[in-house]
Amino acid sequence: MTTLPSRLVQALHRFNAAHPWDHNAHYHPWLLRQLPRRFGSALDVGCGSGDLVRRLAGRAESVVGVDADPRILDRAREATDPTAPVTYTRATAPQGLPAGPYDVITCVAVLHHLPCADTLTRFRRELAPGGTLVVVGCARPEGALDDAIGLAAVPLNLLMGWAKNRGRATAHRPVSMTALTRDPELTFDEIGREAARLMPGARLRRRLFWRYSLVWRAPAAPRGR
Q: pLDDT tens across 130-149, in order?
C-alpha cells in the first residue's frame, strides 16, 4: 500500500483544516440523480445536520431523518423550514430505525459506523417494492487500485478546498462536518460481497474523495391477475 511521507501528510492535514469542505455533500447532486423525480416517502439514515433531508423534501411527500446524536438533530431542525414535509427522529440504526416501507432510503458516510450485514438487511426490509436504496460510504483501502484512486484524489481535494473557500483560510467548518467519525473496517470488496449476497443486482462503484457508492432497486411488487 502506498504511504505518503509524514511531512507531506501533515502539510495536507493543515491545508485541509484551513480550507474545509464537505466531501459527503459533494455527492448529494449525484445521489439525487439516482432517484425518481417525485416519490412518496424517504428515510435518510444518519442525517446529521439535515442537508440531504432538505433536498429530498423537494421531491418527496414525506422524509424522515434519523440520527443518534440529539445535538446535531437540534441543528437540523433549526435549519429546516417548519412547513417542510420532514420529521427528525433520534434513533440508533439498524435496530431502532422507524418502520417503513419507504420508497427511498439514503445513507451517506454512515454504513461504516454500523454492522454492515445487519444494516443492509434492515434497509432491504424497510424498502418498498420498486424502491431505491442509495449508499455513499467509506471503505478501508486495500490494494493498488485503491491506492491509485486515493493518490489521484489528493490534488483534486486540495483544488476543491481552495475553490470552495475562494482561496481563503477559515476556522469555520460546516455543521455537517462536526459529527463524530471513525475509520472504516471493511474493504470495498468485502462490502461488495455482502451486498451481492443480500441485494442481488446492487451496483457498487469506487468514487473519488475516499468514497464508494451502492445503488439497489428493490424488485417491484408482482402484478395482480
A: 999 999 999 998 878 866 76
Neighbours of 225 (CB within 10 A): 3
Give residue 55's Cα distance to chain centre: 14
Residue 204: count of CB within 10 angstroms of its CB: 20
C-alpha span between 103 and 76 (Å, rounded): 22
* C-beta neighbour count of 42 within 10 angstroms: 26
Q: How far is CA 108 from CA 15, 23, 82, 174, in A?
A: 24, 10, 24, 16
Rounded to an integer, what distance in angstroms lies between the CA atom of residue 7 and that of residue 179? 27
Cβ atoms of 215 and 134 within 8 Å: the answer is yes
The model's pTM: 0.85
pLDDT in tens, 27-82: 999 999 999 999 999 999 999 999 999 999 999 999 999 999 999 999 999 999 99
Owner of C-alpha cell 431523518: 65
Question: What is the DSSP annotation of 47-83?
Answer: -TTSHHHHHHHTTEEEEEEEES-HHHHHHHHHHS-TT
Q: Where are the beta strands (DSSP E) in the chain?
A: 39-45, 60-67, 86-90, 102-108, 127-137, 203-207, 211-217
225 contact partners, CB below 8 Å, separation of at least 6: none
- Identity of residue 46: G
